[in-house]
Amino acid sequence: MSTAKDDVKALLDKLPDDCSLEDIQYHLYVVEKINKGIERASQEGTLSQDEVERKLSKWISK
After folding, report:
1. What is the end-to-end Cα distance of the chain in Å, rounded?
2. How far apart are CA 30 and CA 49, in angstroms?
3. Stretch 22-30: mean pLDDT, rounded?
4. Theoretical Cys-Cys bridge with 19: which of 6, 15, 38, 58, CB 3.0 to 4.6 Å?
């Protein structure tokens, strides 16, 4: 398991050399949101495509 510092280093290696601090902050924000989503899905479970379509069908007009 990698540390937060390792994750940041890996992210910085992937970004272009001319990226701004704002670019770095944005990418860190996205990575954090993704990690929280994965953790939540692991704890609470996920829905199948059919379940999502059924739940959203009342909101989506066909």
Report:
1. 45
2. 24
3. 97
4. 15
